[in-house]
Write a structure and sequence with these properties.
homodimer; 259 residues; two-stranded antiparallel sheet; 27% strand
């Protein structure tokens, strides 16, 4: 199915600095997760950022919109979502931004030869960002055996994606990933020996509520230890308004780790 | 060396609710870490709490001081520190409290038979708390090869202590540990398949500073997922005063997870 045969919307991000074409409904619509993940890239970043599981391109385009010297590889397995990403890049509204982004249809869990044939060569990325599709899974959607199977598959996917990230990373490349807190026990062993000097930040819907997501940033080949930085609180004590910091991060006006 | 041959101090905790005899100097003096670890035990806890690496008994006694139906096993490998713990239990100031605590000299990394001979039988604990000695290591104290060796040993120690914790745990027993954030990659795999439904809280010296410690609480045999709860901030924006919450936790007037 191509993008133009499915109902879609055209949505502004970063207060109109860039636009996406997205499916009108469903879990694949981009939002806060993608914007906060993109905010983990330092503002002065220059080079190639590989967006793993790019969907319609939200996180990758948020990086190129904030970092004028960045180029994004929007890597997506689903031909349908890759079609939406291409449709987004061809929007007039995105102007010159689209020249700094390339869509690559590839399965990040596939062997190196297959990835390479799809245009993804080892040692190509200065930064990798990943927002795996199962972040959006509803916990109540599956039960019993299916749920356990999904859990096992999730552990394998982190290991495969992070192995691929290590293959694509240039020396000292950055990595940022967004995940549910429950995934930390799967992620930490998969980072080991690959990406170090990690910083972990937890994202809390309100000051007094448990985290709904964590973002980890780390560096290829670095030996430094894990640190836990102060959390991000998304909403004020009541109502749906974002905190000032969350609003800035969501709109490309700040970076998550202050760099 | 016995306690009475080394310089010692007699120190009040929980605003005078219990007292410890401690070495006058050095890294083995108890402080905030032990008090916050003890605060992870629910206030209505009843049963046996095993304090792994008890030192002079600070964390274990803090649990029995706050939880009137708790009994503590103060497990310590060092004969010298076990001597300080015994000296603390014999203080008049501790009154009836001392009857709810027992000192056991044992190496928690030793095989089950050796532990058992020391008086530590499997399936004896309703809750386990652990504050490993290397939490106090200064990072600059060792360099190069020694540092790497210490790191490897730390990973092994978490695995051994958590294996022992699983052996000593009764069904559904609780576990709480305090660690440096850098230890999380070693701790998480060692919890797996043993203790689940974990809650992680990070302890920040100030609101805007990286965490100096994390506390994890989990339950033996539980299948629930890891959650990350809002952090504890220890000091206000300036000066050395504790925040009201840290002060309550440190003095046995509150519990870390609100239960």
């Amino acid at each position: 199915m191509s993008a133009d045969r499915q109902e879609s919307t055209k949505d502004a991000f970063h207060r109109g600095n860039f636009w996406l074409v997205q499916p009108a409904r469903g879990a694949h619509r981009a939002g806060l997760d993608a914007m906060l993940l993109a905010a983990a890239v330092p503002t002065d970043f220059a080079g190639t950022v590989a967006d793993f599981g790019a969907g319609a391109g939200a996180a990758g385009l948020a990086v190129v919109a904030r970092c004028p010297q960045a180029h994004a590889l929007l890597i997506e397995r689903s031909p349908e979502m890759a079609g939406f990403a291409r449709a987004g890049l061809s929007l007039e509204e995105n102007g010159g931004l689209a020249r700094r982004a390339t869509v690559i249809e590839a399965d990040l869990a596939a062997p190196a030869a297959e990835r390479s044939a799809a245009g993804l060569t080892d040692n190509c990325a200065d930064f990798i960002i990943m927002n795996p599709p199962f972040n959006d899974e509803r916990d109540h959607a599956t039960t019993g055996a299916l749920k356990r199977q999904a859990h096992v598959m999730e552990g394998e996917l982190w290991e495969r994606w992070l192995r691929t990230a290590a293959s694509l990373a240039k020396p000292k490349a950055g990595l940022a990933l967004i995940a549910r807190p429950a995934s930390l026990p799967e992620i930490m062993p998969a980072l080991k020996g690959r990406f170090g000097a990690a910083q972990l930040i937890s994202l809390h819907p309100r000051e007094d509520r448990a985290a709904i997501r964590v973002i980890i940033r780390a560096w290829y080949g670095a030996r430094g230890k894990l640190s836990v930085v102060p959390p991000l609180v998304i909403h004020g004590p009541s109502g749906n308004r974002f905190t000032a910091r969350a609003d800035d991060l969501c709109n490309g006006a700040a970076s998550l780790f202050g760099d």
